[in-house]
Amino acid sequence: MSLDLTLESGEEIRFLNRISSTVRQLLRRTHFTTRELEAILLIYYKLLKDEVGHGGRGQPRFITRQQFTTVFDTVLGMSDSVMIGRIHAALDKGASSFVTMETWALAMSLFLRGTFEEKIRYCFQVYDIQKEGIIRRDHMMLLLKNATIKHQEEDSEEAVKDLVDIILHRMDLDRDGSISFQDFSETVRRSPELLECFGQALPDRRKVYAFAITFLEKVHKF
Description:
It contains eleven helices and four strands, in the order H-H-H-E-H-H-E-H-H-E-H-H-E-H-H. With 222 residues, the chain is mainly α.
C-alpha cells in the first residue's frame, strides 16, 4: 500500500529503498514504528522536492532552516522566529543553515511522541542560550522580554524583572542566582506547568494532534 498518493509508486519505492538503513538506525532513537518513520521521512523528501520546484539546482541533500521554520509556523502553530532560532540550535547542536533527515526525524519524535523527561531536557536546552548548562538571570530577562504587555517601556522592564524574581524563587533551588538543569528538572517534575516558563518551546498540542493523525498508526488525544 502506498504511503503517499501524491508520489508515483516507483519514485516512492526507490526512496524507501534508499533510506532503509537510515530507518533501521532511527528506529533505535525515535518513538516511531518502521512505517511511521517511512512516512515522516517521505514528508522530508517532499520538502526537498519543493525546494527544487522553487528554483533549487538539482536535488538538494537537506532541507533548509527556512523550510523547517515554515513547518513550525504552518503545521505546528509556532511563529516566534526568535524562539524558533533557539529551537533550531537546541535540536541541531550547530549553526548550519540546513536540517538533516536525522534531525528532522528526532525532532518529530520529540514533538509527537516524546516522553516528559525528553521534553524537560529539550526545553532546558532551548532556554540555555549560551550552552553553559545554566540559565542566567540576564538570559531569563531576554527570554521573557516579550512575555509582558508593553504599555510603557519602563513598566515592561519592571514587569519582566518581577517575573524573573518569581521564577527564580520557584526554580533556583540552590539559591546561586541561576537555574541549573537539576534546578529546572526537579522543579518541573513537581510543577509541570513550568515546563515552558520561558516561552513556547513545544508545538501547539491541537496542531500536533491534527498533524499526527495524518500518518501515525496510533495517536493519543492531548
